[in-house]
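<instruction>
Derive structure tokens from the sequence
<data>
Labelled lines for chain and fold:
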Amino acid sequence: MKQIYLDYAAATPLDPAVLQAMQPFFVEQFFNPSATYSAAQKVRAELEAARATIAHWLGARPSEVIFTAGGTEANNIAIRGVMAQYPEGNVVISAIEHESVLATAHEFDCREAKVTADGVVDVDQLMRLIDDKTVLVSVMYANNEMGAIQPLRNITQAIEGIRKQRREQGNSLPLYVHTDAAQAAAYLDLHVARLRVDLLTINGGKIYGPKQSGALFVGAHVRLKPQITGGGQEGNIRSGTENVAGCVGLATALQLVQERRHEEGKRLHHLQQLFFDALHAEIPSVIVNGSRKSRLPNNVHITIPGQDNERLIFALDEQGILCAAGSACSASNEEPSHVLQAMGISVADAQSSLRFTMGRATTQAAIRTAVVELKKLL
């Protein structure tokens, strides 16, 4: 049976060009980049070239890019690294953050901003949560379950006004902005100066790169407390011998998705509209969750009232159609999605919801087949 994969938000296949770029560093160029002999220094040069590539797409300096083992670690380093420097401070996040942000932020004095029924953060309410002791605001660029793109520029512009007020009042406490761009990196502009963010997370496993590869942009003005101590690699923030193959793969993957993001975004947006239209035509009871406009082009999230989403996922799997109920990181958790609950969706409807996320291999035929098979099951 030919599989129809519709869970690209959980994992993407490795791009063949990425694999090709990585291969030399598994066997031939296996040297430790911290060693002093020439063979190792050639590997160091490749590592730094990968860092420079990532910095280019972020509009940053290479020294502002820290390699990590994925998005979860990058989020942890960003939040813990800042909050450990300012233990009396507080952090403000949105209610729909990835678990790696939610769990880490709640280790500290944390406030959560509400979101609208479309899954978009309430900017006014978020601003009211910021007080004189707030040192970090973390709002994801685009949601991993709903695909809702957050008004990041509006948030950072408003925060700039708060910073100005602090300077006038003699409050020297910093106010940093972090964004988890794991889902956004393949489709949206990542230029940190245009976004006005101080920290930004990317994840290779979501952009056709290797799993357990990631990076954290840390602005030169930001001071983080080291989270993994040892040999002092990665600006003394994350010690340990670098995963050179993973770093090179991440850089290659980021370059490829950013170069193709406009063309691929248009293609997926067309498929997304086809998906919505087919669902409404074949299954009129379907409810589309989230904004139809401010949304990643590969995301389709629906509720089918009265249905058990877990049962539907298993039944679709038997037909070769792979989809999800929400975040893969919390798939084993029987609790309804915190994202859907934050949007005001009832527990019953949350447990009747499915997420389909498309990618490079998705075709019109695949979408039509998925909708027909779903209709048969219902």
